[in-house]
Protein 1
Amino acid sequence: MALTGCVYNAIPPESSPAPSRTPVVDGVSAELLPFYEQELAWESCSGADAGSYDCTTVRAPRDWNSSGDGEVELAVVRRAADQGDALGSLLVNPGGPGASGYDLVADSAQFAVGDVLASRYDVIGFDPRGVGRSSAVACLDAAGTDAYFFDIPAAPRGTPEWRAELTQRNESFAAACEQNSDGILPFITTEFAARDMDLLRGVLGDEKLNYLGYSYGTFLGATYAKLYPEKVGRLVLDGAIDPSVPSIDVSTTQAVGFESALRAYMRSCLDTGECPFRGSVDDAMADLGTLLASVDASPLPAADGRQLGADSLMTAIIAALYAEGNWPILTQALAGALGGDPQTAFVLADFYFARSADGTYQDNSSEAFRAYNCMDYPDDLTPEIESAANARIAAEAPTIAPYWESVDLCEVWPYPPTGTRGEITADGAQPIVVVGTTNDPATPYEWSVSLADQLASGVLVTREGEGHTGFQKGSACVDAAVESYFVDGTVPDDGLVCQ
């Protein structure tokens, strides 16, 4: 996310911190006024670029259905607009669930939203409840997390003993999350995170919410639009999740999406002189299947004592498929694994789990991811549905299929899910722009099409290409559409297709 498609004249970033605005409390109930009227204590903090950053903490109800039952804290960073006539606040969520919006913006607001939007908006990064610097989900220590993600089960894959071993591992993980998360697990839901966003809008002094959400951030944004359609400002949802799709269909569609992306990678790889595979795409995929089976049977030892089995190698592959720019390192990883060296594959797997080279974890994104999903997705799986899903994966994602099945952590989560799945229409909202990429493996294009159709004011912008999400991914057409909407309010043509 480094390119923009339009150029605006911007004042050099020497501005002072954004002024505080009067909180907006219209329509807020009496019991919630103490939260919406809170005074924010902004402090100067650092960012990666030359802009002016300040940070604060916002108090939110732990339980939005019972506002007197404790509080959570939300960490917020703000980069003041380069130009003095800021168009207001622009909240950003990078996805996950569990990714840090605070870090995204603090690391570089321009990377988060591009130069044009950073020039015109006060860019707001925040960690949703359960994430990062906010009141956070905490589970295992680094060694325990390593064991959870990387230890290879002793029992053969797919056997009852294998399932029992993974279930026991899940039980230990879930118990640790419950023990170490200070009672917040039942309140880590997308609905409550969306209500938190409205609180942020109010205390920041914005009448309406301007928001850019990537990946899972599209579900968060769509949920906000469902709850507060009259408060929707300019929303762009990039790499959409279909809110009507049940958990098993999410998993199935992603498996098929990653298989499609893997085939696209193989076509590209075979056109280079450095690909470790030969022949047709089908030949290369068969050879990759052989490699996965080989490390499943005989894992490759790494210098740090870990062993690269098929699950970790598949994690490495998936991590690389999120962006076409990662394909060269995927080639290195696969060539290394074919030669008995797992080092580069572990670099990719560690990147996926936010693991540092010294064995520590940079954030709690993996824990928060699981906490949100276990509360958001209802338990509606039947043996018949599961069998049909497995049959589709085997037919449409044959390389990935043997290593896609696992034992669901949510089966042993300490709290039952409270989320529901269904179409979101957000009747009465301003136009909501949905960006979809045609061969996006993580949030397949069909989900963007579906969400844009569901939303009463949905507008679909299509990027033809590879990788996850579409804004700032090299398409001047997509970038211009998004930037013009945020800056000028110009709504793109519904159905716009960009190269």
Protein 2
Amino acid sequence: MNKKILSMLFLLIGSSTWISCSDEEESIRQPDRQEAISTETYYANTFGKDIMSTYYYWNEDIALDLLLWNIETNGDPIGTVDRIRYHEGEKYIDKWTMMTDDMDSFTSSVDGVSTTYGWNLTVYLLSEDSNQCIGVVNYVSAGSPAEKAGLKRGDILLTLNGEDITTDNYTDLYYSTTLASSLASYNEETNTIQASGKEVELSAVTMYEDPVLCDTVYEFNGKKVGYLAYTSFDLNAIPKLIEIGKKFKSEGIKELILDLRYNGGGYVITENVLASMFAPEANVKARDVFEKEVYNDILTEVYRQEGISLETPFMTEYDYDAIDLHVSTKDANIGLERIYGIISENTASASEALLGGLMPYMDVQLIGEASYGKYCTGLMLSGEDTYTDCPEEIKNWGIYVMVSIYQNAAGETPCMPDGMQPDIEAEDNPMLPYPLGDVNEPMLREALTQAGRQYEEKDVKSRSLSPLYPRMEVPQKAVFGKRILLPSASLRTNKTFQ
């Protein structure tokens, strides 16, 4: 964003808030500085209020809360952002805007680097009459402690440090730094869990987790169908994804099974890269509209006055010095005619946007369960991003703030408000002994069936586990539910801190 636009932006919004009020209200809202809060908290209040007043999509809906946000006395800016996010009564419409006092760690975890065992689990409650749980491995990351311990999809964690896994301690599977667990196996015929006698001991490590789990090509009925299981729209994976696109193109596939059942979102730029490989080549060459963003009145006016389009076209060249990204998808458009999208309640944000953005241009069939329903785009801003003279105390504070609602070329947001609905229902069953990419894995099997592959009924069973094994709510990775604009595309400011 150039300086002219930035200057215009802050002429429009004024000083620390866009809300006007009387002198009497101002004296009530901002009394003489008190020592009840620290200087850092005062600065963080100013930062949070500036961002929520200017960039937040629902800024007018929370105008009263912003008016009552006293930067001189409020002792909990993080909690205030959480509390005033757009809501209707007790129901929070915006479940995603959040503030942090450690932006470096937050950014790192969103980029796929975290302290982890390297596994993705589903936790099931064994009985409604008991608090005992089991952890079932959905997948493990390459090179992780979980993989090195020999764990794989379908393995069952029965105990935790010598005790049963329960509703009271199961989050230690995510947050502890070391653990020991005994394993069990699933008997499909009797639908029971049986101890296997095996044990594992793990120590968490800080590592990058490659979001590409599997890419392969199946051939049947005289055609080839590609399969890509992918878990996060991070930036580091972009070159690898382009190489996969080139491989699929060289194989001559016309249909792709895109497995996003565990993909909670990520960066818009990665979404755009994938769209340029998956959309019909004619639409990409014509630079047709892929998506549109709808902003609040302040940002919309800035763009209008500068004649900047709110539409994102398909493109093939991506050059971003700020993140050292210089790639081209010119030779990676696959030539697809149809996509089978595997979705679940863990499919969110950029995943939903990618599928929805392609729908006006090609046949997209959805298989699985209803997706999460994240229909807005966020901006990750630190204090240092926001002010040219940012106080040292808040340079590492940050906000992930919702700035827009995204739409496809038809003006639709297919996941709004409660998620995309599958065309063909199928349930994920990680207990069955089939790795991702195995043609007998139930959700992939359904997608391949829709693509024309024939099975004999005896090949696999796919009994639903839901009635006997209710799923517990589990902690999500930092990237879950996020659709993030690149820093270079952000509305950065040249505002002076006040």
Protein 3
Amino acid sequence: MPHPGPTLKSLGGMLATLALAGCSSADGLRPADASPRVQMWLTTQDRTALLAEQPALKWAVGQAPGAAIAVDPSQRYQEMVGFGASVTDASAYLIQKMTPDARKALLTDLFGPAPGIGIGFTRVTIGASDFSRTHYSYDDMPKGQTDPELRHFSIAPAKAEVLPTVRAALAINPELKIMASPWSAPGWMKSTDSLIKGTLREEAYAPFATYLTRTVQDFTAEGVPVHYLSIQNEPDFEPENYPGMRLSPAQRAEIIGDHVGPQFKAAGLKTEILEWDHNWDKPEQPLGVLADAEAASHISGVAWHCYGGDVSAQSIVREKHPDRDVFFTECSSGEWSAAWPDAWPWTMRNLIIGATRHWARGVLLWNLALDEKFGPHLGGCGDCRGVVTIDSKTGAVTRNPEYYALGHLSRFVRPGARRIASTSPVAAVESVAFVNPDGSQVLLAFNAGKDAADVAVNAPAGHFRYRLPANAAVTFRWRGER
């Protein structure tokens, strides 16, 4: 559901080039004993720079006076899982249509280390979404027939394209974390006897939990472990023309507390259950589910979408439940807003910076890839944009603003990093900062203003200055203490 507002050198050759540049690894980070400096990568709205490395800055002694971004690595917050987008049926179909060499190059660019953007988090659908070429579940039955023992259960549709795509991504990035969400239970479990609209019948609660359990088990057997799962995508919404299912907070609490949670535990599954998986505008819904002690005992966190409300809702719920994780799991840009003038700044401010400042351990956009006609899809959004566009006839790849927005953190913030304190006192300039497990520190700054801004950054090592163009993002990285 869209937001209404806004080739490669050989590995040896690449490492040799990096070594000549004084780099310690393929990501370009200099060794700790190199002369102190700050590396930086820039993206500008006019696209003269697209995640492009700039000349390094030198540290100045002491602290800059006046308004300056203050980075304090002693104040540490959530541990990061990763950044990425969903391998929908549409995305996997387009990627699998590519030539083997082109497919490998694209997946390496998306999931590999620099010069790739290092995607470390992705989401797959359990059954069809609107970005599928047919509507299906893993246990479809003729109208009027049921299958409570799941004798007809099969993940064969996922084995065709989605799971091979995710396995290829895992081969490139073995640390990739995977979330799964159903858009609908099988129709025979529902009040409508259809994938379209309706709710889950009470007598189907246990079979539905078994359906999810077997999905996780079968995905894992296919080499795709499911680290996180929500029991329903957008449970407060019933789409008119693609799979969906409404589940109230009370229903979700009972399904998780009495069925899914216990079944996962009995099966020995380590998959973490995320509640909500819907918009910022109704924090009372996940709060209602977390108020149920039995359900809450099986829930590790709350997942959010962008299509209503404000990102601050993530903090509202976390303040009441600081022992629960926060994840941001879906947002799509599309042709309703101009790509660079509108979608680029909105995504940077609300999702890349906003979601992480409001406790998100992972940030997911919607389709990883779509074609030049914003599909394939069946129902739902007809003008959504993928992180990349793959031309359905030529296979040519276009990297969209969302690619660069993700890349400003996904390339540099590694799994296990922690968000650290950073201020945003410079007018129109917003920031977020992290410390990686290797001690390197990362600061992302975005200038949302109409004019260039002079930015000073204070850190324990000293300070540096940079003039940041309007509507531009810059990622700074430097060595810090562990």
Protein 4
Amino acid sequence: MDDVLWKAADKLRGAVDAAQYKDFVLGLVFLKYVSDSSGEGPFVVPDGARWTDLAGASGDLGARIDAAMDAVMRANPSLDGALPKIFGGVDQRRLGELAGLIGEVRFGGKAARDVLGEVYEYFLEKFARAEGKRGGEFYTPPSVVRLLVEILEPFKGRVYDPCCGSGGMFVQAEKFVLSHRGRLDDIAVYGQEANERTWRLAKMNLAVHGLSGDLHRADTFYSDAHPGLRADYVLANPPFNMSDWYRDTGDPRWRYGVPPAGNANFAWLQHIISKLGPGGRAGVVMANGSLSSRQSGEGAIRAALVEAGLVSCVVALPDRLFRSTPIPACLWFFDRSAGGGPVLFIDARDMGTMADRTERVLTEDDLARIAGTYRSWRGSGYSDVPGFCRSADLAEIRSHDHVLTPGRYVGTARGDQDDEPAAARVERLTKELYAHFEESARLDQVVRTELGRLDG
């Protein structure tokens, strides 16, 4: 079904503005879903707004679709402002062909929501790939989201994302809860997104997955939509190295230092920390520069975060995970209950596998190893693995001037360590070489013997 719908979507490509393309397609798919499942699903579809009403009427199809979107939003307050009303005035022939193809898909039955959820996730990934760098505005690679969720384990409580994009963090948190025999209402979702189109995607995405969320459209730094929130979990992938952001030097969120005007990395980190309730934990995707930069006071802010005992873990990610940016990335983890203990450093730069020529993904084994290391470190059974992970105390971090690059701490794998004395290494390699010579001579004799038998 996914491929059929994606090919159908291509019919509208070129007929609408590229920035609105995904709004057209996903809006139509969502309208078809609520129409098919209105008798058994959570949404009300008024008369005149059903798919059959649209398909059977004459006149301007785009205007009818806009009217149907408006009617569905009025009948379902949770969808207020979420559905696109942008279909009037587009190429009616192509729109009709697209609507006809989508009309052939059936979303009825108990599995309708699961099917639609899969379609949405497939489409969001395809759009992110098609848009390239601009796709980073709304989409975080699934394996990165999975890693954040597997480490934080948001079983129950308030989940927050201050730059929620299309809502992928929330959807993955929901999947985690359900996979561990929880219920949808075990988590409460709070989010904020500045981009209007992206905010609409998030609203639709949550509705598709049966999640009711408190999502606001506003600039997080200019207008904090959840000023009193104390979250149990924060999952976020803020824009890397954002230089154009609203900065109030007297903002109480800058408890650990005023972030520089030219880079919002430490503004995002401090905003996220300000949202953590007692015992709250956060996982944040950041540019690698945040681990070592000393420009404009960033080094002092990083030191203050470490000294406050907030940083629990840092993970260096492999390259090419993000199709939207070539900037190397890392994960910061914060823990309000850490109490100033050691910090776990994980160097995962050599992990992952190439999904195609340009994009790397973390495999199930990779995710299990990284998340399992973190869980054992928080619980029991942990031990350092040279070249991969190390638990470093505050004194050691201070000795590195609070630079948090994992490679400084984990060292190299034992097999890579060149600590064998030269004489011993020569003796060992000589023995190995003579052993290979002897094996080669033995095989040579076996071959000659077998050839002799064939000649006889």
